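Run folding on both entries below.
>entry_1
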Amino acid sequence: MFISVFFGWWYKDGWAIVFSGFSKRSQAILRAFSVSQLLATLFAPWKRIISYPGASLSDKYQAWVDNIFSRTIGFIVRLMVIIVACLAIIVTALLTLIEVVIWPLLPPAVVLGVVAGILWKA
């Protein structure tokens, strides 16, 4: 009875757990990297470093250059973190694919391993 319940769970409900695991892991990656916040502030200045223009034209130009530079650095850093998050999700997807391929093979492998261990002659 126990074995039939186990195999019923493994090949029916176990699949749902495998696929929901990918969804949960992907959501955790997105939260860990704060991707939604990074996308919302993609063009914001880096660490809120902002130069305020002075009265002269050269001070205004210098402040503009400083602010563009700060926003460019912020964009590059945020974009790199978003790319790393995407790569982490891709790696998670590949590992989940491997899990999906191996999942149906594990119970027969255990049974074969036990039988091979019993029949093995040293």
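>entry_2
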Amino acid sequence: MDITSRTVFLNIVRFFFLIFFQVLILNHLNLGGYINPYFYVFFILLLPFETPRWLLLLSSFFLGLGIDLFTNTLGLNASASVLTAFARPFVISIISSGTESLIGNTPSLKNQGLKWFLYYTISLVLIHHFALFYLEIFRFEEFFQTFVRLLLSSTFTILLILISEYLMYPKTK
């Protein structure tokens, strides 16, 4: 395992920043009642490729639990985050199958390119949001209304992630 202390520190800072950013800012945005950005999932997406599965699941659980504690959602975010973390290695292997090899230590727009990163982000954000929204209502009565919320919120979350990636790694040319 080739994870440096700088990477560990960066991920700890990112962990707490994303929880507070989600709770203090994004949870208070009212975008028509249908768009709820859940940007904290970005933490799971940016964990290094070599992160052991147990650490991936445990850190995702505590990430979701941190959101749940502040929003009083009784484990909804924790369960959606753990499911996303569980699916992450499978999504990476499916997207990276074939001739593409993983570049760098962490998944990023800069390392993997737009196509790979977009597939990766869309897949994991949809998994997360699907679990979160359907566990929240826990019935099929409002299936289509929830599906619209899921699509709009996922789109907004994906846009926030892509904007963040472009801000973190601006083109030098």
